[in-house]
Amino acid sequence: MKKMFLSVVAVFFVSATAFAQNIPSDPSVRMGNLPNGMKYYIKKNGKPEKKVEMRLAIDAGSILEDEDQQGLAHFMEHMNFNGTKNFPGNKLVDALESIGIKFGQHLNAYTSFDETVYMLPVPLDKPGNLDTGLKVMEDWAFNALLTDVEINKERGVVLEELRLGLGPDKRMMDKWLPKMMHNSVYAKRLPIGKKEILENFTPDVLRRFHKDWYRPDLMALVIVGDINVDEIEQKIKANFGKYKNPSSPRKRNVFEIPNHNETLVSIENDPDATGSSVQFVMKDTENYTPDVTVKDFNKSILDNVVSTMINNRYNDMVESNNPPFTFGYVYHGGTWGRTKEGFQGYAMTKEGGQVEALKVLMEEVERANRFGFTASELERAKTELLSRYEESFNNRDKTESGRLIGEYVRNFLEKESIPGITWEYDQYKKELPNITLEQANNVLKNYVKEDSRVIVITGPKKETIKYPAEADVLKVFSDLKVAKIEPYQEKKAIKSLVQPFSSKGSIVKTDVDSKLGTTTLTLSNGAKVTYKKTDFKDDEIMFSARSLGGSSLISDDDILKTQHAFDALTEAGANGFTQNDVTRYLAGKQIYVSPFISTLFEGFSGKSTKKDFATMMELLYAYSTGLNNDPASFNAFRTKQSAYLDNMLSNPQFYFMNEHMKYMNQKNPRFSNIIPLKEDWDKTDYNKAYNIYKEKFSNAGNFHYYFVGNIDEASFKQLVTQYIASLPTKGTTSTFKDVGYRQLKGDIKRTYKKGKDPKSMVQITYSGEAPYNEKDDLALRALGGVVKIKLTEQLREEAGGVYTTNASGGMGRVPYSSYSFSMQFPCGPENADKLTKLAVDELDKIIKKGPEQKDLDKYKEGELNDYKTRLKENNYWLSQIAQPQIDGRDKYAFLNMESSFANLTTSDLQNAAKKYLTKDKVIATLMPEDGWENAPKKEESATVKASAAQ
Q1: With 0-12 CB in 10 A as exposed, 13-18 as middle and 19+ as buried, what is 512?
Q2: CB-CB contact of 257 with 182 (8 Å)
Q3: Is the four-CA dihedral 185, 189, 190, 195 of positive or negative sign?
Q4: 3-class DSSP state for residue 821?
């Protein structure tokens, strides 16, 4: 008896000890602390090859600003790009662009409430690049020059970023944020700051922020990539360990979000708002603590299971023929501050539907609280979660460094555990089977509460919309207590989407292209299948299918009746099963298949894991042969789309884009609003769209299917024979046609007025018809990159008039030979004409004198950097092997890009600019509505995360 008792005690002790174990840290990540308190993380990761990702994380953001510093944490981030000890002036961006790092696309940073993070991906194809990257990190951490001249120059750029954040969302947020962050410093420290401070602070105020908070004990250096860990560690110790903390450092306070007994309601609307939504937060009473033990991690697994189950119920509603909202979800997680989590929910709704959506969100939560979940729901959620982790686990050795590094940054800033995907996957496999219905049914009871609750309703201000009173919102919760609610009835999952059948098709011909590494199968029904087996990812297969014709073969009259219905067709489901049935059938499978009809071709795009490839092929077959006809599903789709799109033209940017395209296409009877309005929906003919789809997808002989990924060739060929060779065919082929309509030509200048905020947008375009020339195509694309560099230098750094710029160019082969080149930038309306002239002048300089060699070299390095990375990506290969079917290009040309770039000269760019960009210039400018000059000056704030580059 005594022996048995001791055994039971021992088992209990071992189990309890294991349960209390701390979550381990990934042993492949080397972590350390320098004597000055700076932390470092280093991990060797070979994907992508010859590249390293670097992050400098600083545990200081806008929450630490003094009253006279509001906006200066973010301003300090900008200044690190404008003069450091080893890279004075603008030399930093210049030096990094010269080794292939693009400003904005690669090189960037952000500032939020509690942190500032600098991001730098460095190509390692040349000696010295690694040391250059580390020197930049060192300068960002400790060696900002912060000269008066550079600080004052940067004011305009930061003010332009602030300007970009103006609008209805900002105006409404200014009203609801103080309630969401009730009695918290967070409500008063948005990262973009205050306009009057940004305009008027003295440089010493910024230097004070830098001195207080840019110090080793608040920093971490994170490096992940194709590196030698020992070498990196020694360099970090030698270069970063010599810096010291202040003798009397300021305390890095942690700021709480206080609890409150009452429910706070904020109902806001704005004439320019583009959408309607409702959100709620039920804040936890206790402050947040990160997961430390295995028990903590297992609790997070349980939370994920419960949120997955309830969100699956919401998804079923959204996919029904009477959706209560466009989309909706709940979860338990962090609020904007580090110290608080809560149970949260959100729904995007139709106009005036926020209270009803809130009722639906909370009613489902109440249903789960009263009656719990079903056994089948629980198993479905477990399967889904395990499948997601399984895909990540299977690709663990091919995960890109950029996807890994964020986890280590969060470990430093938020103390998030970093056990690694192997441990996490094993823990999910171990813990999921142990989760019971009883456990799941008790989770929400701990989260749903009446105190520290906030509800926010936002939407457009219209006479036709009646907004609820606060009492109406609160009544939703009081009514729930006595509401008659029935238990949830889950529909049984279908066992097969396609009934078993024997294929009569076969593979009749096989061609191998050793240069591309592809194999092309010709099938008995005329369809072609090209595949490339790769090891870029261990568990990824991507596909695309194309049949030439597209909407170009639809008549002018019919295209206006059908174009907005094509995206709705799969909402009807397939083979007599509803879309809900299909979704449940696919639960736990990592696949998607999306049919489409574009201008020049119809087809499919899709993706799957190896395990789920057969199901993806089954879904492809179902969408090809058995799409349901269900007008009610189209009406539901229209309802959801209208909730999202109906007010989009209130947004000045969308209005500008729509009106300008309408003007330029005024001679094209096929053109309609880029955002469907009521009149577009009213003329849409669902049945006609359905019949066109059926006709286009009934001729497999006109299709070419492309697959790229880790393909098992034997099973692949079997599934191709089963599901593609068996598709119906007509024995005919078709191709697209040029419908003959063109945009307006000539030198055109148009101004469009929309919006009350002092925000403008300028778009300068050159386009027209010209015989396709491969060399000119490459030159125009390079010219876009070079001009973007010059616009950034002149409009942003010199004039301080913009936050971001863009320029792009190229030539097209189909449906007719053409060229295009464009420059775009947002700015203040008072500067639009001046900056437009500066932009055109920069292009004219290139036309007259040619570009500078250093700028062309920067473009080449950046493109080659990206090109070498893309050559190891499945989606890049998929697009390259499929494109020749559309435009007839040389299928091997993309393999020779390095030599093509090497042979590109400044004269090539100048000649292309002279040839194409001296006529047919269209300048379109968005200006605010009349009276903006006299609008009252308001204190301005913007987004939760502000970034230095874009």
Answers
A1: exposed
A2: yes
A3: positive
A4: strand
Which two three-digit tokens encode residue 491? 């529909």
Percentages (nearest 5) of helix, strand, coil residues in the chain? 45, 20, 35
Q: What is the mean pLDDT of residues 466-487?
A: 96
User: What phi and psi values does residue 117 have, to the nearest 5 degrees?
Assistant: -130, 130
Packed helices 774-791 and 832-849: angle between N→C axes, nearest 10 degrees: 130
DSSP state of 644: H
CB distance 387 to 359 below 8 Å: no
* 42 DSSP β-pair partners: 30, 223
From the list 114, 24, 135, 110, the residue with the least C-alpha distance to 60 is 114
Query: What is the rounded distance in angstroms from the CA atom of residue 424 to the CA atom of residue 426?
Result: 5
Phi, psi (deg, nearest 5) at residue 683: -90, 0
Tell which CATH classification among 1.25.40.10, 3.30.830.10, 2.40.340.10, 3.40.720.10 matches the domain 748-930: 3.30.830.10
Q: Give the helix/strand (H/E) hosting 782.
A: helix 774-791
Distance of alpha carbon 681 from alpha carbon 692, whole angstroms? 18
Q: DSSP strand E in 421-540: where?
A: 453-460, 507-513, 518-523, 528-533
Residue 172, SS3 per DSSP: helix
| Residue closest to 592 by CA, chosen among 611, 609, 606 | 606
H-helix segments, 483-575: 556-562
Task: Tell which residue, 635, 621, 830, has the closest CA to residue 726.
Answer: 621
| Cβ neighbour number for residue 145 with a 10 Å cutoff | 17
- Across the beta sheet with 518-523, what order do the strands follow? 507-513, 518-523, 528-533, 703-709, 541-548, 601-608, 591-597
CB atoms within 10 A of CB 199: 12
Cis ω on the peptide bond leading into residue 48 (within 30° of 0)?
Answer: yes
- Out of 3.30.830.10, 3.30.870.10, 2.60.40.1190, 3.40.50.2300, select the CATH number for domain 263-397+415-482: 3.30.830.10
Long-range contacts from 551-555, C-beta under 8 angstroms, 24+ separation: 551/597, 551/598, 551/599, 552/599, 552/600, 552/736, 552/737, 552/738, 552/739, 552/815, 553/734, 553/736, 553/737, 554/692
**pLDDT of 63-117, one tens digit each?**
999 999 999 999 999 999 999 999 998 899 999 999 999 988 888 999 999 999 9
* Maximum Cα–Cα distance across the chain: 100
Asked if the model's pLDDT at residue 334 lies above 90, the reply is: no
Rounded-to-integer distance, Cα 24 and Cα 278, Å: 39
The backbone torsions φ and ψ at residue 410, rounded to the nearest 5 degrees and listed phi first, read: -70, -30
Residue extents of the structural domains in the chain: 34-240, 263-397+415-482, 514-723, 748-930
Q: What is the CATH number of domain 34-240?
A: 3.30.830.10
Nearest to 334 by CA among 155, 524, 114, 555: 114
Handedness of CA 63, 67, 73, 74 (dihedral sign): positive
Tell me the one-letter amino acid at 672: S
Residue 73 vs residues 54, 79, 199, 516: alpha-carbon distances, Å: 21, 10, 15, 50
The CATH number that domain 514-723 falls under is 3.30.830.10
Which residues, including other chains, have CB under 8 Å from residue 714's CB and lie 6 or more apart? Answer: none
Report residue 439: phi and psi, to 5°. -65, -50
Alpha carbon distance 131, 122 (integer Å): 10
Q: CA-CA distance, 339 to 63, in Å (whole number)? A: 13
How confident is the model over 372-423, as pLDDT tens digits? 999 999 999 999 999 999 999 999 999 999 999 999 999 999 999 999 999 9
Cα–chain center distance at 784: 24
Nearest to 941, CA basis, from 337, 193, 270: 193
Could you tell me the pTM of the whole model? Answer: 0.94
